[in-house]
Amino acid sequence: MIGGDGDGGGVGGGGDLLVVGLPKDLLQLHNHLSDATIAATSSFSTTTTTTNKSDNTSSSHPHQDHLLFHCRFRLPPPLSLPHIHFPPLHEFFRSREVGEFVSGALAGAMTKAVLAPLETIRTRMVVGVGSKNIYGSFIQVLEQQGWQGLWAGNTVNMLRIIPTQAIELGTFECVKRAMISAQEKWIQTECPKLQIGNLSLDLCLSWLSPVAVAGAAAGVISTLACHPLEVLKDRLTISPEVYPSLSIAVHKIYSDGGLGALYAGLSPTLIGMLPYSTCYYFMYDTMKKSYCLAKKKESLNRAEMLLLGALSGLTASTISYPLEVARKRLMVGALQGKCPPHMAATISEVIKEEGLMGLYRGWGASCLKVMPSSGITWMFYEAWKDMLLRKGEIN
Length: 395
Prior knowledge:
Blueprint: E1 2-5, E2 17-23, H1 27-31, H2 35-40, E3 48-50, E4 66-72, H3 89-93, H4 96-126, H5 134-145, H6 154-188, E5 193-196, E6 199-202, H7 210-238, H8 246-257, H9 266-295, H10 302-332, H11 343-354, H12 363-391
Antiparallel strand pairs: 1-2, 2-4, 3-4, 5-6
């Protein structure tokens, strides 16, 4: 029988008492213990009490014939966690990182609100729905769905672009600073090396462009975080009669294919995003620095940001457009009853049906959307960032 007795009344007190009740049959075994065994246990404060069956004194234990073996021990004091200091909330919201994320979100929302009709026409042409030219597709949308059709899927598009642009632009800035800081540190100190037998590899990677690495990381991370919203936006745009609302689209896609259906086409999206995102950010940053150096000025004005942003978007879109066509075909292929197994099969199918020019079908509409989108996004982003960071007194 095990019980507790002591001032603390529970485990963790300064002098907790453990009371162990043993059957009477073990008393004889206890009496035959050797002196050495008793001495070994002398660190415990032991008291042996034998009760008598004829004892009329009431006992708190239901069994009167027993041996009480009292062990008093002291537990160590409870561990104390180190004090964790969190910065004040107002300082967190005034940090550079938060300012960049918020600037990206605001820039993306304002850009998409203006350019939603071009995004609708571009998506229809890329996936092969309706007319094959911009004007024809525009008239077709107006006849079938009215003016509201030009903003089809714009709700989910806004929900998609706000976190996407916040994550993408915020990640770009953070990774670029981290890469520049690491390369400067490696220049001042010895670079990390990888030793494989007699072969020594230098891992300082000073030849890598921090802007290119940051652009690739921004595209990949934002895609992984926001890809389901891209799938929903495309379904609402291409088949509004099948997916009339966001809630119905989510329920139907999940019912048909589970959670994996919301990540349909993720692999080709990542494959297409890498060259686009890398080229997009690299071109803008390079042109910005070169232009400022040539003009001997520290920063761009709003019109120059708009122009350079548009040129960077045009270049990146032209390089990666065939991958974009294949990605869109894979994502909405299930709606037309034919879905190639992978990106290579999709590109082969497009070339077989429409020739090489089929890989650039809708490129004009894409440029009409990408160029103003890129330019306006950079213009709004730089403006919001200057405003928020300057207000927060961050250099």
